[in-house]
């Protein structure tokens, strides 16, 4: 008679489970609080941005807002990007000395940590009035929610979500920057668990495990707009 231990099937976690695992401090309430504080900080930073500011001064101001809110400057640089710098991939440094104009576009991209939990968020804003800038900013947020709705409605894979985002962005008249392909989020640090992108994930992503990033660029390479948030169901919006 075979030994019971040796005859039982050994179960190994699948790749998706490994990619989506969390650390020992993971907490739904903690992750949601980090997200809440991140979105609030984005609004507070945006309210302090004024035409005539130099981008580097806006970044310093943003860091001060995060620290004052009890947030740690965390796993990627705090970014406030003005004008032509809104085109650049996040890993590419801004051109120094860019001043926000009277009718101009800027975006905020922050990744603060609240206690053990990672926040990450971004949004675009228009100073003054400019129809094309305003449309790009609106479309970046609208496309985020369109893609999120496809995930919630169909259980689409990460790969399918970004293929869809690319298609819709083109119909809107923009190009999608695939240098910002979404990523994991968790109790800090998610990089100890997984560093791959959402756009490469071949399975349906789970809620509260991923950041969906949308960076739209003008086809003539004049400006861009950005929106990102945690992948969550409608009830959180």
Automatic annotation (TrEMBL):
Cite the Peptidase M24 domain residue spans from the record: 31-231
Q: Which InterPro entries match?
A: Creatinase/aminopeptidase-like, Pept_M24
Name it: (Fe-S)-binding protein
Question: Which Gene3D superfamilies does the entry link to?
Answer: Creatinase/methionine aminopeptidase superfamily (3.90.230.10)
The portions of this protein that span the membrane are none
**What is a single Pfam family found in this protein's UniProt entry?**
Peptidase_M24
